[in-house]
Write a structure and sequence with these properties.
Elements lengths: L1 E3 H16 L6 E8 L3 E8 L2 E6 H16 L8 E5 L3 E5 L2
Antiparallel strand pairs: 1-6, 2-3, 3-4, 5-6
Length: about 90
């Protein structure tokens, strides 16, 4: 299974909205990859910015796959990659 940028962003938005007690529409996400830090995302919740690391992104994807696809996957089954867009390969 593979999900792309939009679904990864949706996963992070839903995860952060649940954590912060806000609506998913109150969350904005910008994904990035840097050689020094790996995969990260800058997240804005009601105008306040924070950076999350790859472990947080994988957690959000793990929960998203369970809630949206009713599949139980673990972080070790998720591989992030990027080219012109981001994607996550998920093995069951």
């Amino acid at each position: 299974m593979r999900i792309y940028t939009d679904e990864i962003i949706n996963a992070i938005c839903l995860n952060m909205a649940e954590r912060r007690g806000v609506m998913p529409t109150d969350v904005e996400v910008q994904l990035s990859w840097e050689e020094e830090y790996g995969y990260t995302a800058e997240v804005w919740v009601k105008g306040r910015s924070q950076f999350i690391i790859e472990a947080n992104i994988l957690e959000a994807i793990e929960q998203y796959i369970f809630k949206q696809y009713n599949l139980r996957v673990f972080r070790s089954n998720i591989t992030l990659d990027a080219d012109e867009e981001f994607w996550a390969d998920i093995t069951e």
